[in-house]
């Protein structure tokens, strides 16, 4: 895949480039500051953009804003946003324009190379990758809702769904059959009274919308 | 006529109180003399500060009496008499307030019995004004004099008891010394907490991580399986260290404050609170930002208050208002819940509230909690800062 990387910290930037190239991806451009991001994306039209949230010159949320601006100009551009900390409201802003081709992960996750590369290709393919911490945070503040009626297993399945994983990954992660996964998902949707949604980002949106407005 | 009489009666009560207090002062002078003699004889040195305190209370009573009559509060400014005997003695003698009190005490000897004049004024006034005002419909003459007497008493007292600029300054310096000491103590405690968090958390994990990598290097050729297991553990330690660091950073200064400013950060808090929160913070969107410590404290208060509201109030609605005032930042959080925040005494709520109070006090701010049984709970905080 052709990737544009925006990261101001030289150490992390080189690490990311090394990781991506050794996985067989091509890093077509790197941006070290916010003003370089949009031109790089418009010139190279990559398969995916990997962006750091906090970038020069302001060291605030330039990367996030650049991601939103880029998606406004290049509709459907997959972006994977990385950050030292996750903020629920940032996830909501990113997902505001649809969950297709959106990733939002802690930088820590890059260390789990395989999982990171998996998230990368999932997002590039139009899927979703949401950090487990965001999902945990969403679940943490729910009290006395239909969520309480879920079994522990169903809750695990719900968390993985919200992170953007497909049935095959869920079954592999939880070491259960895909049939069992489908059954659990059916129960979750039934118990939460959600309209049945097909796989992929629409399912993520349905689950997230539920968690946000329960 | 009736109104005149009623007014005169009110004044008489006021004057009677004043005379009563003066009579008490006459008796009190005996105590004062004994103290003076005792102090001179170096036997009763401990009596002196106590006497100064007693004079303060008498002066305080007079202040509230004068304030009640004129409707204008009479400010007071004293230095606190605390600490060991030497300090108490020094404060009692040096406090400009003590001198002002003594001056009033002396002056009160002269004018304090003014009220007695009301006694002959009453029968004379009733007769004269009864004819003059009641029958001839003229303006009353004598009875209003009683009110004038009370006016005179209150005005003189207020003037004598109002603290001098010097005393006001001394009191302000004292207050600043105390709050600064409090702020430094809170700051030191905060530094120690951060140091301990880093020492026990991230630092320890990084040491463990480094050890695992060292062991993995040893095992690299000999036992690749064990090497891999050690590297897995090393990665776990690295991730845990990162999580700890994130936690510590959030505790020092939430990153979203840097990213979005206080208004944006509070809106994010509201959105993620799980409650239906109305935020009014438009005041802050433009103009200069408050100092980082003030923003962090305000953020902390809103975060704690919303957590408490979500956990304990039993309501799904809350309001947050953050606004500039002339002297700083005002934060109000109001829920629609069942109240009784302090009375409920649940541990989680209690420590949260105590934490908020400490954090606000460290910045010389005020923290008011109103949470009657039946609700709602309203938390109002003012944090001073210069815009």
How does this structure look, described?
- The complex is a heterodimer of chains A (214) and B (387).
- Chain A is an alpha/beta fold and 214 residues long.
- Chain A has 2 domains: 129 residues, Response regulator (Rossmann fold, 3-Layer(aba) Sandwich); 78 residues, Arc Repressor Mutant, subunit A, CATH 1.10.10.
- Chain A contains 10 helices and 6 strands, in the order βαβαβαβαβαβααααα.
- A 6-stranded parallel beta sheet of chain A has the order 2-1-3-4-5-6, with helices on both faces.
- In chain A, helix 2 packs parallel to helix 3 and helix 7 packs across helix 9.
- Chain A is globular.
- Chain A starts with a strand and ends with a helix.
- The model of chain A has no long low-confidence stretch (mean pLDDT 88).
- Chain B has a 5-stranded mixed beta sheet, with helices on one face.
- The radius of gyration of chain B is 32 Å and the shape is elongated.
- Chain B has 387 residues and is α+β, with helices and mostly antiparallel strands.
- The longest helix of chain B has 58 residues.
- Chain B folds into 3 domains: 162 residues, no CATH class; 69 residues; 130 residues, Histidine kinase-like ATPase, C-terminal domain (Heat Shock Protein 90).
- In chain B, a hairpin with a 7-residue loop joins strand 4 and strand 5.
- Classes of the chains: A alpha/beta (214), B alpha+beta (387).
- Chains A and B meet through helix 4 of A and helix 8 and helix 9 of B.
């Amino acid at each position: 895949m052709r990737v544009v990387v925006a990261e101001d910290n030289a150490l992390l930037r080189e690490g990311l480039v090394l990781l991506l190239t050794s996985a067989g991806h091509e890093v077509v451009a790197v941006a070290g500051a916010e003003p370089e991001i949009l031109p790089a994306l418009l010139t190279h039209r990559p398969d995916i953009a990997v962006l750091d949230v906090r970038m020069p010159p302001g060291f605030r949320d330039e990367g996030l804003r650049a991601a939103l601006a880029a998606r406004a100009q290049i509709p459907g551009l997959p972006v994977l946003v990385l950050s030292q900390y996750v903020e629920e409201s940032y996830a909501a802003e990113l997902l505001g324009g649809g969950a297709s081709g959106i990733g939002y992960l802690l930088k820590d996750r890059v260390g789990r190379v395989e999982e990171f590369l998996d998230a990368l290709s999932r997002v590039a393919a139009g899927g979703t990758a949401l950090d487990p911490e965001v999902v945990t945070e969403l679940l943490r503040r729910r009290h006395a809702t239909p969520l309480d009626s879920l079994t522990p297993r169903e809750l695990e399945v719900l968390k993985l769904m919200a992170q953007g994983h497909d049935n095959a990954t869920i079954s592999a992660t939880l070491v259960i059959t895909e049939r069992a996964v489908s059954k659990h998902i059916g129960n979750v949707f039934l118990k939460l009274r959600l309209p049945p949604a097909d796989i992929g980002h629409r399912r993520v949106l349905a689950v997230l919308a539920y968690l946000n407005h329960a | 006529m009736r109104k005149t009489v009623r007014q005169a009666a009110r004044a008489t009560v006021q004057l009677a109180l004043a005379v009563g207090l003066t009579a008490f002062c006459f008796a009190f002078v005996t105590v004062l003399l004994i103290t003076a003699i005792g102090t001179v004889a170096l036997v009763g040195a401990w009596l002196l500060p106590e006497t100064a305190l007693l004079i303060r209370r008498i002066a305080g009573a007079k202040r509230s009496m004068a304030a009640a009559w004129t409707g204008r509060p009479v400010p007071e400014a004293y230095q606190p008499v605390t600490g060991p005997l030497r300090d108490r003695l020094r404060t009692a003698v040096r406090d400009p307030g003590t001198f002002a009190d003594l001056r009033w005490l002396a002056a009160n000897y002269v004018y304090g019995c003014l009220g007695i004049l009301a006694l002959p004024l009453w029968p004379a006034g009733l007769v004269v004004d009864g004819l003059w005002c009641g029958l001839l419909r003229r303006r009353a003459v004598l009875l209003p004099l009683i009110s004038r007497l009370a006016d005179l008493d209150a005005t003189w007292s207020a003037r004598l008891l109002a603290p001098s600029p010097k005393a006001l300054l001394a009191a302000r310096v004292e207050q600043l010394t105390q709050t600064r000491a409090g702020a430094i103590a809170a700051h030191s405690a905060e530094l120690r907490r951060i140091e301990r968090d880093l020492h026990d958390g991230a630092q320890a994990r990084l040491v463990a991580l480094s050890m695992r990598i060292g062991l993995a290097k040893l095992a690299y050729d000999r036992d690749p399986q064990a090497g891999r297991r050690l590297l897995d553990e090393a990665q776990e330690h690295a991730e845990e260290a990162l999580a700890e660091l994130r936690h510590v950073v959030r505790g020092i200064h939430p990153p979203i404050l840097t990213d979005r400013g206080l208004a944006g950060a509070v809106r994010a808090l509201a959105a993620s609170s799980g409650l239906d929160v109305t935020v009014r913070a438009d005041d802050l969107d433009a103009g200069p930002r408050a100092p980082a410590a003030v923003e962090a404290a305000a953020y902390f208060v809103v975060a704690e208050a919303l957590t408490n509201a979500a956990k304990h109030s039993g309501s799904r609605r809350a309001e947050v208002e953050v606004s500039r005032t002339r002297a700083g930042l005002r934060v109000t959080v109001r829920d629609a819940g069942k109240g009784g925040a302090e009375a409920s005494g649940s541990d989680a709520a209690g420590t949260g509230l105590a934490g908020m109070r400490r954090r606000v006090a460290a910045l010389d701010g005020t923290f008011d909690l109103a949470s009657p049984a039946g609700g709602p709970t309203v938390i109002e905080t003012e944090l001073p800062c210069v815009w």
